[in-house]
Input
Amino acid sequence: MSTQVDIPRAAAPLNLAPFRGVINAIIGLGLLLLLWWAGGRAVANSPDMFAFADFAPAPTMTRLWAMITSGEVIDMSVPSLYRVGFGLLIAIVIGVPMGILVGRVAMVREITDIPFQFLRMISPLSWMPIAVMAFATWDGAIIFLITVAAVWPILFATVAGVRRIDPAWIKVARNLGASRIHMLTTVILPAVATDIFTGIRLALGVAWIVLVPAEYLGVTSGLGYAINDARDTLEYDRLSATVVVIGVIGFSLDSLCQKAIGRLTWTRTS
Output
């Protein structure tokens, strides 16, 4: 007489594939925090640098929470967001039409190629003395610097998008009697929308980087001013907390642009 022994089945492996992106993001963030903590410990244990120990994560997060609850984060962020937003809007108003013109008209492209490439390679902060002389307010000077920084990615991305438009689309639109305005609104702009938003995303990153040194000029508000003030008052926990705020806002704005680009991306189906 034989006896049957039940062998327990192995449990099905846990499928983590849907969560891989989130897990990897958490790992990356954890490594960044670990490096920050290790750097803070090294600074605190250094006889020459222990005065900067407040750059460590614990003092920074404690001060950041106090800044959030007191409303200081909002007070310092709103002026900076206004300057970046206004400067970026002006860059879009200039860059998109000029990009379409340069992309569509060969003679304009040949005339402007060298001047635009030359101006593009000049650091936006190099225009700071001119901005101070040309504008009556500090806000005007900062917005000008942000515009100068942001216009080139938008312009060149628009040019690249226009030059990739299938000429057959233009011919079909003309054969159907489309006017220039109709051609612009129904053919050109939809075709280059993804390129424009990609340029805006790049421009936003450049503008956000330029913002902090630009706000060193003479304003008494904004994230750049907060960093400069914290440095002068030796509040290093406040300084590093402001850096975290800058990073979080910049990351959030970039993510919004990325989502907009994803919604506008399309593929041709046969």
User: Anything to note?
Assistant: The chain has a mean pLDDT of 83. The first helix runs from residue 20 to 44. The radius of gyration is 26 Å. Residues 78-264 form a domain with the MetI-like fold fold (CATH 1.10.3720.10).
